[in-house]
């Protein structure tokens, strides 16, 4: 089974770029990013966004960009203008195949923090962390970041990750409607 994704073009509120990292059955990790100029050797913090009600550990780690991966990861996000990269784990854990993707912070000194079972990162440097949310649609995951409490605050980032198998929907309209 191959995991694929479609990206939405809603960017975070600052120079921080969010990328999506996904594992494959053969063990390779691919990253899709809205930046085609990420150099080989760059290390990026990653973390998985917990689903509501999921008590499993999230998976905070670090990946290193190995190379652009048009042939190894092509078709994942490229048609939406994102660049594909092959990455390797330099600090465990990494997103396991079948658990869904992780999000990576590109081009900033922001760090991830888990607070009250929610993943947070200060994406715009204003001292107030944005809060990440993940929910399921019929065949995929909606990954979002919010300027405060999810579903109540303004959504600042959205990405859809297609699983290509049926799951029980948990999303509400605010998760996927354009702001």
Task: Supply Rg.
Answer: 15 Å
Q: How many domains comprise the coordinates?
A: 1
Q: What structural class should be given to the helix and strand makeup?
A: mainly beta
What is the overall pLDDT average? 80
In total, the number of strands is: 12
**Stretches with pLDDT under 50, minimum 5 residues:** 1-9
Shape: globular
Beta-strand content bin:
35-45%
Distance between the termini: 33 Å
Keywords:
mainly beta; 179 residues; six-stranded antiparallel sheet; disordered N terminus; single chain; 2 helices
Give an account of the 3D structure.
The protein has 179 residues and is mainly beta. The protein has one domain (16-176). It is 4% helix and 41% strand. It has a 6-stranded antiparallel β-sheet. The radius of gyration is 15 Å and the shape is globular.
């Amino acid at each position: 089974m191959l995991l694929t994704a479609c990206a939405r073009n809603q960017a975070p509120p600052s120079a921080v770029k969010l990328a999506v990292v996904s594992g494959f059955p053969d063990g390779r990790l691919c990253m899709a990013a809205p930046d085609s100029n990420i150099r080989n050797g760059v290390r990026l913090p990653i973390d998985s966004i917990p689903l509501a009600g999921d008590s499993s550990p999230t998976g905070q780690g670090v990946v290193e960009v190995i190379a652009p991966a048009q042939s190894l990861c092509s078709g994942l996000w490229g048609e939406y203008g994102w660049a594909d990269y092959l990455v390797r784990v330099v600090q465990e854990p990494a997103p396991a195949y079948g658990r869904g993707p992780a999000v990576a912070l590109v081009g900033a000194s922001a760090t991830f923090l888990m607070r009250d079972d929610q993943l947070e990162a200060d994406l715009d440097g204003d001292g107030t962390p944005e809060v990440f949310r993940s929910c399921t649609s019929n065949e995929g995951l909606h990954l979002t970041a919010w300027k405060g409490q999810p579903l109540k605050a303004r959504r600042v980032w959205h990405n859809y990750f297609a699983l290509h198998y049926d799951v029980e929907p948990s999303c509400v309209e605010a998760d996927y409607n354009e702001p």
